[in-house]
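Suppose you are handed a protein chain with no further information: no name, no annotation, nothing but its sequence. What can you learn? This example shows the usual starting point.
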Amino acid sequence: MTTSSGATTVIGLMQTAVAGAAIATMIATSSAAAPLPGTSTPLAPNTGSLTLNDGSTASFVQNNIGQASAGTITGTITPPGGTSTPFSCAYDVARRQLTGSPACAQVLGGATTGGINLVDLERQAVAARVDVVSHIQANADLQVLNDLTQRRIGLNLAAAAQAQMQVGGTTSASAFGSPQFQSWGFAGGDFLSDDRLGLKKSGHGVVATAGVDHTAGNLLLGGYAAYLNTDLTLDSLDGSLSSDGWALGGYATYVFNSVLSASVSGSYGDSTVNMNRAVSTAPVTAKHGHQEWSLSATGNAFWRLNSDLGLSALAGVDYGKWIDSAYVDSAGIQFNEASEGSTWGKVGTVLTLWPGAMFEPYATAIYSHLLSDPQFVTNRDALTLGGGLELVSGRLSGGLEVDTLLLQDGQSDTTIGLNIRFRI
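A reasonable first move is to predict its three-dimensional structure. Written in structure tokens, the prediction is:
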């Protein structure tokens, strides 16, 4: 058989596909569907050869899936006594269709030995995109939970006490004075979008948290429980992903003097993820577990510049890790356990207007730099800008804050949070 380089054919997978070295059964269709955009960048290409029914031989390279690419299969086909002709095929995982020259149909449908394993190709494409979602989900939870306990609680309470210490507004030798308990609640959400090639997605996450802490002398100790929810549209897979789960966490802040303090926090979360993707034959659904761990530590400083302005500065390290459990989707494709950890260094500042007053407007800026391997981000640097208003009245206080993520190419993430605190 010879191939025509100018012709194009589209091949749709029938619903049964056999893993390993088995042959994927193919059927030709007349309607064209464009493959996922982008040019494949092989990570660790799989190579092989096979013999066709007419005696032709084919050698091929099956590319593993990069984050911003569709699956590709390239190679040459050689009829007996003939000249080798190159072929190139692109696999659209969402529609389960292969686009390319007529040789694609022959190579994938006419082999008697060997075979190109489209199940592996599909597994790689789906896993690459789900891993990116898991990374974004874990980072968003890390940012909300640790920022909440370290900055909005630890740093804010320490700064309020230090503001009084710096103007001589307290006769106590300690920051927090006599022991007391406080309860608090927080409800917030982040709205994200990702326009990177082959990874397009959008949606939101929700975090609802309730906690209790105790202050005595110079030490603040607390803990919380949280509800986690994520709902995303996965444009790159013509599908969606949703998750529901919970998290538990703890935190501590120690005030060294009227200027310096330090905070640590940690959390563990567990969620159930449901995913679906539309294909040409029938929808494919999947369900798996998702776990998250985080640790964070910061050093803080506060200066009351004058009666109207207070300035806080922080520097620290955040570590987050996620694990997706192994699962089998409704198409019978098996996915192995996946995990990844990331470490971020950060510096930031908070400028507060009228510290210690009933109304406290403030602005924040946090710069973060990825210290670990950048597997799922295109830029090691991130900048979060935000602001809010804190209301303090007797035993009751509360506030509203809005933050937005910058410097991440093709990505945006805006977080809105409302908190309330009551001194028992």
